[in-house]
Amino acid sequence: MTEPAEPAPLASLAQLKARPGVVIVGSDAEARALTALVDASNLVRAELPPALLTGPVPPAAVTVVCQAAGRAVRNPQGFESETAGQYSYRYGDAATSGVYLTEDERTLLRRISRRSGLRSVRTPYAAAPDNSAPYSLPVAGHSEPFPWEPPPS
């Protein structure tokens, strides 16, 4: 069974290299940078509606992809601190190493997609067959169900 091919990154290697502090030398470094671009693009795709990515990629989305990939390229081991005298270093936790989106980047992506943090969802309901008796919805973690009246016919 063959694995599906990953979609192309939303930003190019040249766009990543143009960012300050990003130095990519050698084929191994380029391969890691390309992987970081793909990972960052996948995270951005998870935040944006697909229709927004069918045409040209919004410039702010390219910026977010390059920022996220750039963090991984500049700091591949996930160091959080380092001291020169009596040498010491500290690795970050798993959440801060590798490719990730910051809360500010997620907020920017929500603004691009014109989404707020709030959403409404239609929920199906099933009224009593004769549509006369109310019924209740079970609520996880509660012993008492939530009372529900079907809308008038």
Structure description:
- By secondary structure, the protein is α+β, with helices and mostly antiparallel strands.
- The protein contains four helices and four strands; from the N terminus they run H-H-H-E-E-H-E-E.
- The chain has helices at 13-17, 27-47, 59-74, 103-112, and strands at residues 79-83, 88-91, 135-137, 146-148.
- A hairpin with a 4-residue loop joins strand 1 and strand 2 (88-91).
- Helix 2 packs across helix 3 (59-74).
Radius of gyration: 24 Å
Instruction: Enumerate how many helices there are, as a single number.
Output: 4
User: How many strands appear in the DSSP assignment?
Assistant: 4
Main β sheet profile:
2 strands, antiparallel
Q: What share of residues is helical?
A: 25-40%
Average pLDDT value?
Answer: 78
Strand fraction equals 5-15%
Shape: extended
Q: In terms of structural class, how would the helical and strand content be classed?
A: alpha+beta
Distance between the termini: 52 Å
Lateral strand order in the biggest sheet: 1-2
Poorly predicted sequence stretches spanning 5 or more consecutive residues: none
N to C succession of SSEs: HHHEEHEE
In short:
This protein is of the alpha+beta class. The protein is built from four helices and four strands. α2 (27-47) packs across α3 (59-74).
Descriptors for this entry?
153 residues, alpha+beta, two-stranded antiparallel sheet, 4 helices, extended
What is the element layout, followed by pairings?
Elements lengths: L12 H5 L9 H21 L11 H16 L4 E5 L4 E4 L11 H10 L22 E3 L8 E3 L5
